[in-house]
Amino acid sequence: MTVPKAHLKLPYLLHGGDYNPDQWQAYPQIIDQDFTMMPQAGVNTVTVGVFSWAALEPEEGHYDFGWLDQVFDRVEAMNGRVILATPSGARPHWLADRYPEVLRTDEYGRQALFGGRHNHCFTAPSYREQTQQINRKLAERYGQRPSLLLWHISNEFGGECHCDLCQAAFRQWVQKKYQTLAAVNEAWWTPFWGHTLTAWDQIHSPSPIGDTNLKGLNLDWRRFVTDQTIDFYENEIQPLRELTPEIPITTNFMTDTPAMMPFHGLDYQKFATHLDVISWDSYPAWGNDQESTADLGLKVAMINDYYRSLKQQDFLIMESSPSLVNWHPFNRPKRPGVNRLAGLQNIASGSDSMLYFQWRQSRGASEMFHGAVVDHHGSTATRTFQEVSQLGADLKQLAPVRQLPHVPARVALVFDYDNMCALADSEAYADTTKQYWQTLQQHYAYFWRHDIPIDVISPQADLAPYQLVLDPMHFLMDQAWIDKVADFTQAGGTVVGTYLSGVVDERTLAYLGDQPQRLHELYGVQTTEVDTLYPHQHNGVHYGDQTYPAQDYCEVITNQTASVLATYTADFYAGQPAITKNQYGAGTAYYLAARTDAACLTALYHQLATELDLHPTYPLAKASSDISIQVRGDQNQRYLFVMNFGETANTINLTQPLTEVLSNRTYPAGAQELAPYQVLVFHELIK
Ligand code: GAL
């Protein structure tokens, strides 16, 4: 693990984004215009060089830094900052021609032609050497520039390569992990279909024309891909650490849309320990026809909380669209006010930036119709430019917020990458309804809607700061986690677990017999059967004095030491326990045997929040949960972000007069109406 060496020193909240003047070298007047327009939009930061290798090194060993020197000069003239990318996300043609092994091989064994991006081999020594060389040149030339704020390594790492070099690296990885072939055969359960390995070189990455059924192989491959990507990244940053130890390092993480879940291809919780600063690219489908803005806002909030929790520190929005994208199934511009709402939501969640992809719309190629601050008309009069400028002015007013953390959470929601992969890969239950991240969102919803801070943590996280740990659908659980969560509960914590938990170990092998014993003791129940329902089938859960629908998964459990809070209403397990509560040491463990609806979760979490005295960080009455109130602050002051995600006006009730920062006016006590998508930011000094 790399110990973070540098901290981000922010002169302001960052506003700006990807800037690609290398595409416009034949249009000097456009570049002149850019630097006239940037201050008008409140832009103070540009990310440059993301795909600029061909412009920086047009031939091997021949460099052209003139255009980039000018960018630095001009950004410095406007007192701005540069986030400098290393260009490995796309390679020049000459590099692929001379070193063909850098081209990626797919799972069918087909090597790619030159083209696209994000498609290099992570193992090829030649790519690693070339990358180090160009990165060293960049660090030598720009490392001392006063505007250099942050290194942006490559772009959205992802994907995998199955070439011979990668196969060899994978075999070494497996050998190091398991030591003996017998251990591999056990872990991957290879005697199934007689796939027993008798030599190390028989090990091969999963492939549709080879093995895809060995669950342990599949999960180990995913783990290897993360480790190999991190190894590639570590190679990239070596000259930067050497020459610019004080400049922090990030790489931009991404999400799978529309679920707004962490990218499935890499274990970011592991990767995060190698970064100084977390940054991510946020592309929610605002204005879609599937969900309200408030429901999408909830999803964005949760992934922001996840990225903040990765290092328990402020993060950056590295990319977002100021209007529309060009790669959603439907590409709709943000409604008026939504860019401001989205930008301020990010700041409220702990981001210190709102950066866009990209400053100026490309003239051709695949992203020519992707939204940008400046579109093809090149005017400042567009709605997008005006709204971006408005947010730029807001962020200037909010500059002190960058020194204030998001308020600490006492509730943690567990997300486990290995579990996500293993559950998705398990040939069990139902194809379409496992929905791990979406289930986490359902549990998260109560806390977001009630303005109770919540972290999204990995099983490696320290549980000490928390009172309540939510641990849904933890199908793959290792003994270390079981002990950790049991110790936490024994010492007085409260845990909520659910159906489909503790089924397999870290090798993806099923637990046998009464194992894992401590988990059964923790919850005081044991699962005997899982009823997987078809989408239109329902059971019911009788809880309190109401019956709630249960769908998708209903476990039949036997109760050992717990008290039964709810029972099933139908089918052969009618009357049997559906929700239980177990005293475990000084703490309490709740078990939800069935997937219930939001109303049932609300009832349960309402009871828990009351018992545990979990309350909103700021007690402000609101007429609708479409309004969210998020707080950044410390013991001396706080900023309250009051955000109306509603498509209609909604009111809040101020108990005392408060100063609103963006309008610089004092709001009196009493009811205040917020227009659709309106945001008010109140500042309060704490006496
Ligand atoms: C990101 C990528 C950018 C740009 C953007 C468009 O995933 O990092 O380079 O392609 O998407 O939305």
From TrEMBL:
Q: Which InterPro entries match?
A: Beta_galactosidase_C, Beta_galactosidase_Trimer, Class_I_gatase-like, GH, Glyco_hydro_42, Glyco_hydro_42_N, Glyco_hydro_b
- Protein's name in the database: Beta-galactosidase
The chain positions of domain Beta-galactosidase trimerisation read 409-614
One of the Pfam families matching this protein, by short name = Glyco_hydro_42
Q: What is its EC number?
A: 3.2.1.23
Membrane-crossing segments per the record:
none
Give me the reactions it catalyses: Hydrolysis of terminal non-reducing beta-D-galactose residues in beta-D-galactosides
Ranges where the Beta-galactosidase C-terminal domain occurs? 627-682
Q: Does the keyword Hydrolase apply?
A: yes
Which residue numbers delimit the Glycoside hydrolase family 42 N-terminal domain? 18-398
Hydrolase as a keyword of this entry, yes or no, is: yes
- State the family named in the UniProt similarity comment for this chain: Belongs to the glycosyl hydrolase 42 family.
Q: Name one GO molecular function term.
A: beta-galactosidase activity
Keywords in UniProt for this one?
Answer: Glycosidase, Hydrolase
